[in-house]
Amino acid sequence: MTARTSNDTAREIPEATVARLPVYLRALSTLSEAGTTVCSSEDLAAAAGVNSAKLRKDLSYLGSYGTRGVGYDVDYLRYQIAREMGATRDWPVVIVGIGNLGHALANYSGFRSRGFRVVALLDADGQRHGEVVAGVVVRAFDDLRSIVREHGVAIGVIATPAAAAQDVADQMVDAGITSILNFAPTVLSVGPHVAVSKVDLSKELQVLAYHEQRKATQEPA
Amino acid sequence: MTARTSNDTAREIPEATVARLPVYLRALSTLSEAGTTVCSSEDLAAAAGVNSAKLRKDLSYLGSYGTRGVGYDVDYLRYQIAREMGATRDWPVVIVGIGNLGHALANYSGFRSRGFRVVALLDADGQRHGEVVAGVVVRAFDDLRSIVREHGVAIGVIATPAAAAQDVADQMVDAGITSILNFAPTVLSVGPHVAVSKVDLSKELQVLAYHEQRKATQEPA
DNA sequence: GTGATTTTGTTCTCCTGTTCACAAACTCCT
DNA sequence: AGGAGTTTGTGAACAGGAGAACAAAATCAC
Asked: Are the beta carbons of B22 and A200 separated by less than 8 Å?
């Protein structure tokens, strides 16, 4: 009996690869919905917007899920990536700050379809309590601790103004949350065992503007 | 007369550095609002959440704007970075797709304060036309071309469902837009002279879930 | 069964980005 | 003025990721 692709050892998947796996997952879903059952690395790379050599190398970190001369079974590969990413599990999530962005996030179907379940919406503003957004009642921020305990929440999303973000983060960590996705435009400081990821809505726009400006000043012809 | 720091030559700023400049800009604004007039690379690095050596190297690509033994003048450095990034200019922007996310983006103050001015909100749904969001009237998608011409729009934001995104992108390019920020969960294909940047709201969450899962399976003790 | 063809998985090389470490340059104190 | 103490800017070593190229392994035609 050979070792197969069973993964007792902690295979180190490079961070850059991990960041691309969600993209592959999305591309595979699209292919699957279009009725494609098998695809080559070339096909999938095109659908994901990357180089095919890079795609194959990325997938090789997970194991050998393709067949030489044939390609990849779309649904099988999709399942394997989803399992590796933890997308086959159910991840209870708390969103704090139900302004415009919080609304958008609560209603975002991409969360639910990727295994994320919004178990609570919290806001410091008492005016909002009781309001129902995306089928979930907005509750007081003070309920955080009990909600985290009750549902075993590990992941919190911050969609508050910048001024409130650090305090929210502190209380999230205190309540037992170990991963935070921060949409507020501020740098959070947390303990070393807490993972923080940041999405800056205007950052990408600024990078685009930079390149626009360069184009303009570079070719004055 | 020496050459000073005048920048006739096209200094190549590494992409990784460009991506961090908006973060430094934000940190400098925060410091400035707090009344800080001078800061060391250590201070600014802490505020921006990066290593101080990296910060100094990043800034060195722009020029020598610090003073040894002293540090950086907050407002002066802020202006220099802003100028380099094109944030001292006015950038007219069009947002297409006024759902939850489009609403949030239209209301996002971070755009305006970084030099971006939303000149039009467009939606394919006739029901929404005439609605006023963030002081701007929602108009028909067909008006795109004339708006781009009139305001000299170079940057477009796509906040539509995935299914509509490619068509919107095609028409944006056709209308003369050369930079696109895509919030729709799909890979856009455009010509080589068009810059596309993508923000995937659920991607970061998936990466966090991956690390959570690893933590859980790694330490079963 | 054998050879031609396809496509994966992987090795090797190159390049970008990060970090260290230190000389250069400035201020402050005496 | 001169020395002690700071802090920047940068050269050099190091790490990590990207892409080319190819061997291994599968299918297909006959």
From this structure: yes
Task: Flag whether pLDDT at B2 surpasses 50.
Answer: no
User: Is the model more confident about B111 or about A8?
Assistant: B111
Q: Is the pLDDT of residue B183 over 90?
A: yes
> What would the pLDDT profile of B24-80 be if each residue is shown by its tens digit?
999 999 999 999 999 999 999 999 999 999 999 999 999 999 999 999 999 999 999
Say which amino acid occupies B179: S
Length of chain A: 221
Chain A residues 15-34 with CB within 8 Å of chain B = 18-19, 21-23, 25-27, 30
Burial class (CB in 10 A: 0-12, 13-18, 19+), B85: buried
Closest C-alpha to A116, from A144, A146, A95: A95
Task: For residue B103, give the 3-state DSSP assignment.
Answer: helix
B69, two tokens: 């033994």
Question: Side by side, which strands form the sheet with A71-73?
Answer: A38-39, A71-73, A66-67
Nucleotides on strand D lying under 7 Å from protein C-beta: 5-11, 16-21, 24-27
State the smallest CA–CA distance between residue A96 and chain B in angstroms: 15
Distance from CA of B67 to the nearest CA of A (A): 26
**Number of other CB atoms surrounding residue A100 within 10 Å:** 20
- A85-132 pLDDT, tens per residue? 999 999 999 999 999 999 999 999 999 999 999 999 999 999 999 999
Residues of chain B with C-beta less than 8 angstroms from the C-beta of A99: 104
Chain B residues 157-196 within 7 Å (CB) of strand C:
none
Joined together, the tokens standing for residue B47 give 């505020």
Chain A contact for B129 (CB, 8 A cutoff): no
Q: Please state, in angstroms and rounded to a whole number, the distance separating the CA atoms of residues B118 and B112.
A: 8
